[in-house]
Write a structure and sequence with these properties.
The chain is built from eight helices and 20 strands. By secondary structure, the chain is of the alpha+beta class. Bound molecules: flavin-adenine dinucleotide and NADP nicotinamide-adenine-dinucleotide phosphate (NAP). The site of flavin-adenine dinucleotide (FAD) has 33 residues, from β3, β8, β12 and β13.
Length: 340
């Protein structure tokens, strides 16, 4: 049986770099180890947290339970036809390394998702997305262990109930499953997405004459490196809030007061997505810093830990931001990061 450590600092295991203790911590490298740990926990009855790369969590206090770090590795081609290749990746694979594997093999579909931190296993959790592509666009299926009874269950696309930074695993099945592997359906004949954010500009600046999977990946990497804080240098968990999606009539009313308010089509024609970064900047938080907790000057949607901020301080800052955005615009920002 794998050794389960006690009173371990989670600082190296969360990209915010927040220093809290886990009552128990165990990295698991195989499915057998995971099953043994779950068996052990049947007698211990500890609260259980499945951790990947820790890049979408904020710990606001010590974790009074068992943190299981999922390190399952392996990537394999399980099927292909004239148009698609089906690649299965184990949950503990690093996401960006997996994207690079696909770019090198000319499997098209996830190059816009380059440089997102974290692991494969968390990719369906919030249907990760960037630059006009979401995991739901390439998702085929996943296998997950039902935590209460250890039974393996397969989920189809429809069963995952993907939404904007959402899935069933963040909603009704929260804390119920450990995602073991994910299968992606990637294209052999490319269908690129470049009309989002400033990908086209970046490609032009890079002198790209012909679109390719690699060129788009490089453009995305370059843009991200220029505006997002590197978590190995400044603690953060990416966008702290979701972009709010509001009713079109409400958006039009706001436009009368703030003619420059940006808006993008929401999930249907009655809804508009407003960049939360703009709302936060307009309420004066961009570049704000209190102690070591701050709102990143180059991208105010990202809250940062400049060194020794506690999770409580970062959370308190997020509450202040929510309050002032609501006061000024009547829009309630929702946290995207998982709070523990
Ligand atoms: P963790 O933080 O370890 O876990 C996140 C949640 O998923 C937790 O609730 C955890 O319990 C659960 N979980 C993790 N693995 C499993 C598993 N195997 N089974 C069951 N539950 C599990 N996100 C985007 O969507 N788009 C972006 O462009 C983006 N950019 C980012 C940029 C930066 C600089 C940073 C720091 C973060 C960014 N993120 C982005 C957020 C984050 O990287 C992603 O959400 C990522 O998928 C989280 O992966 P992780 O392995 O670190 O998950
Ligand atoms: P940006 O390009 O400055 O755009 C600002 C916002 O406008 C984005 O949040 C994006 O929404 C939206 N947007 C831009 N072009 C759009 C279009 N053509 N159609 C619809 N919506 C559009 O954004 P950014 O902050 O630099 O981020 C770039 C991309 O990386 C975004 O997709 C963002 O979601 C993603 N990202 C995510 C995280 C995270 O932690 N979740 C962190 C960093 C970056 P969407 O966010 O809905 O795409």
């Amino acid at each position: 049986m794998k050794k389960i450590a006690s009173n371990i600092s989670l600082q190296p295991y969360n990209s915010f770099g927040v220093d809290v203790l886990a009552r128990h911590f165990v990295p698991a490298d195989s499915l057998n180890e995971i099953k043994e740990i779950l068996e052990w926990n049947k007698t211990q009855q500890q609260r259980l947290l499945i951790l990947g790369g820790g890049s979408n969590v904020l710990f606001t206090h010590d974790y009074d339970g068992l943190v299981l770090q999922n390190n399952l590795k392996g990537i394999s081609k399980i099927n292909e036809d004239d148009h698609f290749v089906y690649i299965k990746a184990m949950a503990g694979e690093n996401w960006h390394s997996f994207v690079q594997f696909c770019v090198e093999n000319k499997y098209q579909g996830i190059e816009n998702l380059s440089l997102i931190p974290g692991n494969v296993g968390a990719s369906p959790m919030q249907n990760i997305g960037a630059y006009g592509v979401e995991i739901k666009d390439v998702f085929e299926s996943l296998d997950a262990l039902h935590l209460p009874d250890g039974v393996m269950v397969s989920f189809t696309h429809a069963q995952c109930k993907f939404g904007y930074r959402e899935s069933i695993f963040k909603q009704s099945l929260r804390n119920q499953f450990l995602i073991v592997s994910v299968t992606y359906k990637l294209r052999k004949q490319p269908k690129f997405t470049v009309n989002y954010g400033n990908i086209e500009q970046a490609l032009e600046q890079m002198g790209v004459k012909e679109l390719s999977i690699e060129a788009i990946a490089n453009a995305v990497i370059q843009i991200r490196q220029s505006k997002l804080p590197d978590p190995t240098k400044i603690g953060n968990a990416g966008s702290f809030f979701k972009n709010p999606v509001i009713h079109q009539t409400f958006y039009e009313a706001l436009q009368k007061l703030y003619p420059e308010i940006p808006g993008f089509p929401g999930n249907d024609k009655f809804m508009t997505k407003v960049p939360a970064a703009w709302l936060i900047e307009q309420t004066g938080w961009k570049g704000y810093r209190k102690g070591d907790a701050g709102c990143y000057p180059l991208q105010p949607l990202v809250l940062v830990n400049y060194g020794k901020a506690s999770g409580t301080e970062i959370y308190a800052l997020s509450s202040e931001i929510i309050e002032s955005v609501q006061e000024k615009f009547g829009i309630l920002l929702e946290r995207e990061v998982n709070i523990y």
